Amino acid sequence: MDQEKVIICKNLTKRFGDFTAVNEISFDITKGEIFGFLGANGAGKTTAMRILCGLSFPTSGEATVAGYDVYKQQEQIKKNIGYMSQKFSLYENLTILENIEFFGGVYGLERKEIKRRTEKLIDTLGLQKEAKKMVGELPLGWKQKLAFSVAIFHQPKIVFLDEPTGGVDPVTRRQFWDMIYEAAASGITIFVTTHYMDEAEYCNRISVMVDGKVEALDSPRNLKEKHQVTTMDEVFYLLARGAKRSDN
């Protein structure tokens, strides 16, 4: 991996009234890294991701994404990232081609470049015969693979994936992660949230959020060795239990 830092967080905090959703989190992410952002529902993952995507302002702390400040340069951040959610981010009443061309325009690509990249993408995915089919007619696994391809269509520096494989079968999940590896190898940084602990094993490093705080940050292998366990499920359980005890 290149050591260029594409995301830098220092004591990043987000409060809603008296409630602290994100509590002084700090980490750096390098170019081409696959960074897993893990935590139970309500741990603060989505709130932190919204800040890093330029969709919400932090209460305090510092952060830059692709070299741009989260307070002052949100629009520049949006131009340099891709985003994909579990809820599927394409238009189901448009064809595959129409979706790709639409988002190419949204990303500011020239028509000639959109055409060139569209043809390459359709060929890579093997969707030549389905190109004019409505996206809503595709199986979920294909929808997710297409959504990921569109999220990196403009070759962003970073792509944020929010529970991207939710609901798909294990074989499709494995194929989806092959696509993630390929994107990372091309230099795109992957920031991914997932509740599948086996997927955490695929990341270069993971951060475990518990009640708004980063309770652990390391490679899956190092975390398992540190806690003397064999799975990330066990690591997650021990961290969550330890945080609860410290609160009490």
TrEMBL record:
The keyword ATP-binding applies. Gene3D superfamilies: P-loop containing nucleotide triphosphate hydrolases (3.40.50.300). This is ABC-2 type transport system ATP-binding protein. It holds the Pfam family ABC_tran. The keyword Repeat does not apply. One of its GO terms (molecular function) is ATP hydrolysis activity. CDD domains: ABC_subfamily_A (cd03263).
